[in-house]
Every structure is written in C-alpha cells, then in structure tokens.
Queue: 2 jobs
Job 1
Amino acid sequence: MGKAYLSIENLGVTFGHGAGASEVLRGVELQVDKGEFVSIIGHSGCGKSTLLNVVAGLVPASTGAVILDREAVSAPGPERAVVFQNHSLLPWLSVRENVQLAVDKVFGGKKSAAERREWTLHNLELVKMTHAKDKRPSEISGGMKQRVGIARALAMQPKVLLLDEPFGALDALTRAHLQDSVMEIQATLNNTVLMVTHDVDEAVLLSDRIVMMTNGPRATIGQVRPVDLARPRDRLAVAENGSYVHARAAVIEFLYTRRAA
Amino acid sequence: MTYPKPDFAEAAPVAVPAGASPPATASAAQAAPAAPKGPGAAGLARQAKAVAAAVLPPALTVLVILAVWQGVCGDSYDGLPSPSRIWLESKELIVDPFYDRGGVDKGLFWHVLTSLKRVALGFSISAVCGIGLGVLIGANRWAHRGLDPIFQVLRTVPPLAWLPISLAAFHEANPSALFVIFVTSIWPIIINTAVGVRNIPEDYRNVARVLRLSPIEYFFKILLPATTPYIFTGLRIGVGMSWLAIVASEMLLGGVGVGFFIWDQYNASRISDIVVALAWVGLTGFALDRIVALLGRIVSRGNAAS
Ligand SMILES: Nc1ncnc2c1ncn2[C@@H]1O[C@H](COP(=O)(O)OP(=O)(O)OP(=O)(O)O)[C@@H](O)[C@H]1O
Ligand SMILES: [Mg+2]
C-alpha cells in the first residue's frame, strides 16, 4: 500500500466549545517519509505550533488523525520527542541530569545504569555539549540550552523529531551554527524531522520539503515545495545554487503575495 | 489568580525582601570563597571590610538607641527602666541564660528552648499538612474551588482567637499551644504552595507528558522542585507567624516557655526581666527566619533562575 511513515489525515483542530469555539486548523493532509526533513512555515498565529503539538499528542485532534508508523497518535510519548521553542530544560537539574532524566525514563528497563550514563554522554557529545555537562541551564547561553534540548530529544531515539522554532530566540550566528549541527546530526542518524520555522532561509537550507500554511483561522496547507539540493549542504555554496534560489523565491512569494489563501 | 502575592506582602512584609534577596545573597556567597584565591592580605582586608559594613551600622544604631533611652528614662524608679537599671536588676538573667533552680526559675535559654520545641513540633506538622493541602488545591480545580474560599476566611482569624476553642477541644495547655501554632502557620504555607503549583510552567508539564512520567515521578521530579521556592516563601512566613503565636499563647496558657516567663515577670513587676526576654524573643525569631531562608536557598540552589 506504500503508506507514509508519518501521515496526517484530514486533521482539524477547534479550541473551545459553542460560541467561543475557534477553528484553528481544517483539513490538513501531509505525508512524511522515514528519514525526511520537513519544515512548516507560515505567518504568526496560523497554527503551526498547534499542528506540531497534535503530532506530539499534546493537543488532541478534533477531526482526522495522525498516524505514525501504522499507529494512531492519541497521547504524548517519547517516540515523538519535542524540542520546545524556549528550551524547557529543568533549571534545578544540570545539563547532564536533564538528558539523563529522559534517558532513564525511556530506557529504564532496557539498558543498564552504566549504558544509560554512556548514552546520555554520547548524546551530549553529539551536540558538542560535553564540556558543560555539569553546569545548570542558568549558567549556559541560549544556544547551548537549545543544544541540550536537542540532545534530550535525540536521546529518546524518537521515531520523529518535532522542532518548534528551535532557533527562534537565537542570534543569527548562533542560529547558523545550530543549523549546521542539526544538518550534521540528521546526516548521521537519518532522523525523521518535522520543524516549525519562521525563517525562509532556514527552511530552504535544512528541508527536503517545505510545507507552507495559509493564514488562520481555519488554516490548512497551501503549498508543498520540495527542495532539490544534494546533501551535505553548505550554506555558502548553496546560496548561489539555482534550486536554492528558486525554492526561496517560491516560499517568499507564497508568504507575501498569496497570504490570504 | 487575584489573591496570591499582595496578600503576603501585607501579612508579613519580611517576605518581600525574602523573595528578592536570595539571588543577591547567593552571589555574595559565591564571591566569598573566591576571595581567598586572590592575594591573601587584600582578600582578608576586603572580607573584613564587608563584615564591618554589615555589622557596624546596626551596632551603631543600637548604641544610639541605648543612649537616647538612657537619657530619657534616667535613673527614675518608676515607668520604663533605663538600660543601666536593667543591667543592675537583671544582670544574672543577662549573663547566665543557662541556670536552672528547678520549677520555673530557670535561665532564659531554657524558656526559649521550651517554646522552640513547641514551635518545632507544631510547625513541622503544619509544614507537612500545608504543603500537602497546597499541592492539592494547586493541582485540582475542584479542590481549589471548594477549599480556597474557606482558607481565605480562616487565615484572617488572629492566632489568639483560636486559643479558647483549642483549649475547649484539648483541655491541656501543650496540645492547645501546638494547635495554635499549627493553625497560625499553615495558611501561608498552603497558599504559597498552591500558587507555586499553579505557576509550574506549561513547558515543564509538557516535558513530563512527552516522557510519560507517572504521577509519582511527576510529583517528585517536576512538581516539588519547581515549587520549592514558593514553598519556602510560605515556610518562612509561617515560621515567623508561629513564633508570634507561641509567645502570645504561652502568656495565656501558663506553665513554661518564654511567653509565660514574660507574663510571670509582669505579675512580679520585674519589667527589666521582660526587656531582656523581649530581646531573646526578637533574636530567636530573627534566627528562625534566617535558618528557614538559608534552608530554602540550599534546597533550591540554582532553581530560581531559568
Ligand atoms: N490552547 C489553546 N486554546 C485556544 N486557542 C489556542 C490554543 N492554542 C493556540 N490557540 C490559538 O490557535 C491559533 C494558532 O496558534 P499557534 O500557536 O498554533 O500559532 P503559530 O502558528 O505557532 O504561531 P507563532 O508563529 O506565533 O508561534 C492562535 O490564534 C492561538 O490563539
Ligand atoms: Mg508557534
């Protein structure tokens, strides 16, 4: 039948009841293959986070369904790890303990304590945060916190990694560094990734496909644009590439001229 | 969410600097161990300066107050005794807090100790119950709706108003005193804990949900650490209030304790002794406050900032 790994089918989300009800999403259809990197882009408030949260299981779908690896999503779980916009590390735990908490919970019965410690450090290594493993979140920079958040999510070995504007609060330079890190990690681990972003360049650089959402209320997917660029991608070399320029132009065109779809 | 903070600013103004001071004091504490690393003499000099800056101004203030007091009261033998007369009349009480001639004729240390034991017991019970109830009304909407209005009413009842009821219920001085401490100190603990629980960031809850933490894991790994600063604000207000309550209720209950001592000396017209006892009460209350604040800082280290 060849069904996609992650499948969002006729998804609708309505918050509230009766007169106060607001329909945020309607008829969202999206298929994501295993190992694919898909970005969701759209204007502020259109419902991108809501869409991601439904996939995460944090927000219930009002209509339709999300199916991951042939199972319907009904509740949050570690196989759909989320990197939240504001890192959401627990401030009373050190960097290592933050990741360890997830590792212990997810692999509690499957790995020995030593293996779990090893796995925690391995994931911190992956995001280049081993040097600060004993620091508390308040003692590290915003970019480092976001790295730790990514390490925590990766450590759960999720089937799909959900990123909600993971770099939104960072300066351009830090942002570029983290984007490179994410590309590197994705090249090694071949994760399936769904990422919400505001940034057109980020979307084009990182994604295999870009999902463009119409404005709310009742937002839905307006257009899907594949990005035909070989990996690994180098941000400098790629900027001159025709596919990159075209994809970028298409996204901008969608966002700024066809906003009221 | 209309009730929380302003209430406590009124109930105990001490609590407001309490919330604000930990970061400052914490950084001072971090700076202190760093000092000896530098050139020894300079570091020492700097520390001495810091100590002097903290100790000298209050010491000077005390001296000025004593001098004014002495000047106003002079050597007259009625009314408020002057500092020099207090020294003459209550010298034994001041220099030897540890004497014990049996009965109630003991040094102030023993009286304060008795009161402190009562506070320790009553306050422990109210801390446990208060945190438990606070978590309940913070986490459960219906518990909040049902209990919060009642708590808001009960917490305005003055401690001593509970005493007759308490005596009627328990018939004995000691459990009555414990009950008064309990009922005085539990409200700020409940209300602050509840506010803390309601203020747990949505993000932490989402992390817990993604990890599928069980309710018990959630309680110990997320809720309790996230709420610790609030709990300690409540505990700090609570311990101060229970110290107020115990001294007052002992005056009425009799038997032992520093409150009783004050009343006893009043009946014996030994005003000098009362002044000495007041100094003890004040210093002990201050120490209690600082101890709870310190505990809070140790327990929630690194917790306040995110
Ligand atoms: N729990 C909720 N209850 C009611 N309305 C909600 C809820 N969550 C989101 N909304 C509404 O749904 C709409 C979409 O919100 P969402 O956070 O998904 O937007 P977004 O595209 O992620 O925006 P941004 O780019 O600013 O993050 C908004 O109008 C918001 O007010
Ligand atoms: Mg959003």
Note: Chain B touches chain A through 22 residues (CB under 8 Å).
Job 2
Amino acid sequence: MIKIQDLRKSYGKVEVLKGISTTIQKGEIIAIIGPSGSGKSTFLRCINLLETPTSGHIWVNEAEVTNPKVNIMKVREQVGMVFQQFNLFPHMTVLENITYAPIMVKGTSKKDAELRGRELLKKVGLSEKESEHPVRLSGGQKQRVAIARALAMSPEMMLFDEPTSALDPEMVKEVLEVIKSLALTGMTMAIVTHEMGFAREVADRVLFLDDGQLVEDASPTEFFSSPKSKRAQDFLEKIL
Amino acid sequence: MNLDFTQIVTSIPYILQGIGVTLKIVGVAALIGFTIGILLALCKIGRFKGLKWFADIYTSIFRGTPLILQLLLIYYGTPQLFDIKVTAYSAAVLAFGFNSGAYISEIIRAGILAVDKGQLEASMALGIPYKKMMKDIVLPQALKNILPALMNEFITLTKESAIVTVIGVTDIMRRAYIVGGNTYRYFESLIFAGVIYYLMVIILTLIGKAVERRMRRSD
Ligand SMILES: Nc1ncnc2c1ncn2[C@@H]1O[C@H](COP(=O)(O)OP(=O)(O)OP(=O)(O)O)[C@@H](O)[C@H]1O
Ligand SMILES: [Mg+2]
C-alpha cells in the first residue's frame, strides 16, 4: 500500500506539485493522466525518491520514505520502475540486464538469478534474445526487457512512466499486453499513460493531474463518461 | 651535403635498446596516471566539497606548470626536502604519472558526465548502491566513449617522455644524443630517434583503432 499525504515539490520558485494526497491499495492499478507538464512524472518519481519531495509524506507499506532515517535503497528494491526511454544497460546482455540487480543488490546467487531471469524473459516473450545486447532489440522488445528487469527484483509495486510513448505505433500493443498480463497477477501498479483505451480497460482508478494538482480521483467509467471538473472535460475533449 | 647514415650503424642496437626504457616509463606512468585520473574524476563529480576542491587544485597546478619543472622538482627537489634518494627512473615515472593523472581526470570526468542520466535513474530505481553503479554501470560506458581521448593522451605521453633525457635517463632520446656526440653525427642519430618515435606513435594509433573497432562491435 502507498499512502501520499500533501505531497509538494518545487524546482526553485516553481511549485510543480501542489499538495497531492491519495492512497493506493495493494493490488490496485492506477492510471495517471493529465496534460504535458502537469507533474505526472514528478509525482511518480517522488514515490521512489528519484525526486526529493519539498514537503509532505509518502509511505510505502509501513516505511515512510520521506523520513530521512529510512533506508531509501531498501524502499527502491520494493518499487520497480519502467521508463519511457527504457534505460537498459547498453554494455550488458539482455540476461545480464535482468540479473545484475538481484545478484548485486539482493545477493541472489547467479544461478538462481539466471533461472528467474529466463522465466521472466519467457513471460515477456523474449526467451531467444537473452544473449543479445540492447542495441539489437526493437523499442518494444527493449521495453519488455525493462519490465522484466524491474520484475526480477520481485517488487511490491511497479511504476510506469509513459511506457509506450517512445514506441512506434505497431509496438505499443505488445508492451501493453505484457502490462495487462501483469495486472492479472495482482501487481500494484501506477501507470502514467496517454493510452486512454488502455487506461479505461485496465485501471481500477484514474488520477487526473493538472497544473500540479490532483483534480480528479475517480473510477475509469466515471472519469471518461462524466468527468466532474471543467479541466478534465477540456482535456478529454482535446484528446478523444 | 655532409650526410652519412652508415656512420651510426654500429650504434643502432644501442639506440634501439632505448625503446624498452621509454616503454617502461610510459607504461608505468600511464597506469599511475589512469589510477589517479579515475580517483580524481570521482572526487570531482562526488558530493564531498573538500575532495572536489583538492581534485580541482591538483588538476589546475599540474596543467598550469611546465612538465619539465615538475620532473626536475621531483628529481632534484625531493631529496633535498626528505632524506631519500630518487632514481631518475622513478622520478620520471612519478612526474609523468602525476601529470597525466591531471589530464586523464578531466577526460574521465567529461566521459562520466556524458553517460545518459537515464542510466543513473534506472540504477537508482533498482536500488543499486552508488559504488556499484559507478563501477559496473557508469564507468564502463564512460571509458568506452573516451577511449580515443585516452589513446591520444597515451600517445602524447610517449612523445613527451623524451624530456626525461634532462635527468639522465637513457631512453631513446638520450641514447641518440649520446651517439650523436660520440660520432659527431647528430643529424643522423636524431633523425633515427625521430623515426622510432614516429613508428611507435603510428603503432599505438593502429592499436587504438583496433580496440575501438572491437568495442563498437560489442554494441
Ligand atoms: N529537474 C527539473 N528542473 C526544473 N523544472 C522541472 C524539472 N523537472 C520537471 N520540471 C518542471 O516541472 C513540471 C512538471 O514536469 P513533469 O515532467 O512532472 O510533467 P509531466 O506531467 O510528466 O509532463 P509530460 O507529459 O510532458 O511528461 C514541468 O513544468 C517541468 O518543466
Ligand atoms: Mg512525464
């Protein structure tokens, strides 16, 4: 479970998150939607402290990550993240990408890590690519490896920051399929996305951010059919 | 024109032996320089202000004064301050090592900063600690990018090493000079030394290109 209380973030004088509070239950799938620059990425990145919140509190399970005494590395082990730009390690093979962190961070034996890595590669449909380097993969394949890499740490929760935005249209589906199958396993997820159809289908809840504020927090049916705020109405009108 | 290369033929083996001396100085100095360079670069990009300061001042001094001054200071100056004897060879290796450390640290620093920020974020998100991230994720990528610049530094070192002549190390340069003096054939022996240096540089360049090509292939 993730609890967020009055989260604020400023860059210099500019406040980009203006007091956001919400709770994400275990197993819940959250879609985060909003115009460009509204603070979606910043919000997500505050959860695993890639950005340091200016004020407010975040709890991941029992640990308050905003408490300076908490070991943030331990928290990050529990929160997997998938980036728009994949960020695979280019000098490692696909399998090494996946096994590096379990071996070096969690102390898993190489044998076990590789066993689990191959299992995950099978799950994302890339078994035959384990010895390739990332440059040899298509965007969709890279992103699936990135998902497998995050899953290899057995996280409690997964964060996705526009996982399909850097992909050619024909590769979006294969990545969304992997995320959907992950949803079926009961993984807790927060996904920043512009894929409205996907959000409607998969999410339990939609968070609509605008100008650093959480403007709507509703079920997908509610949000897409009868958005309450003017800002959400305008946004949906523009993109649908 | 008074030119006669046959006059130095018997001295050629003697001059050639200088290659080993030169390579030994350059090789060891490069290792020292590389080690110092990595450490200084890590200090420069690190969080500790004191270390950053130290690294910046170190670099500034070694780049801002003549190499030959640094060499003479180490060779003649150190025994005066501390009661120890510094051999010409160790003075040469230390001076070149310290000096190239300053240059290499700048090359490595730039290489580290050029590594995509996404790599750091992905590492952090996976909970990879700073040291391991540097060693296994950042440095390997940085070194690959800066390989040509490092090779250049190594080539410069090879050529510049000729100034160890002034403290009496019998490298290629010194030997050519001695032969020139003995035979009164300075031109011939110095040209011969020049050819050796030039060939060494060409070979190093080719090796560098080959290594680079191999690294390219791996991605
Ligand atoms: N490191 C930073 N320094 C200064 N300003 C920043 C920084 N990162 C983000 N911002 C600003 O914060 C605001 C929110 O950015 P954020 O990336 O969270 O938006 P977003 O909703 O993810 O947008 P997009 O859909 O384009 O990805 C933007 O105005 C952005 O310019
Ligand atoms: Mg974003």
Note: The helical segments of chain B are 12-45, 49-64, 67-81, 88-114, 117-125, 130-160, 172-183, 186-217.
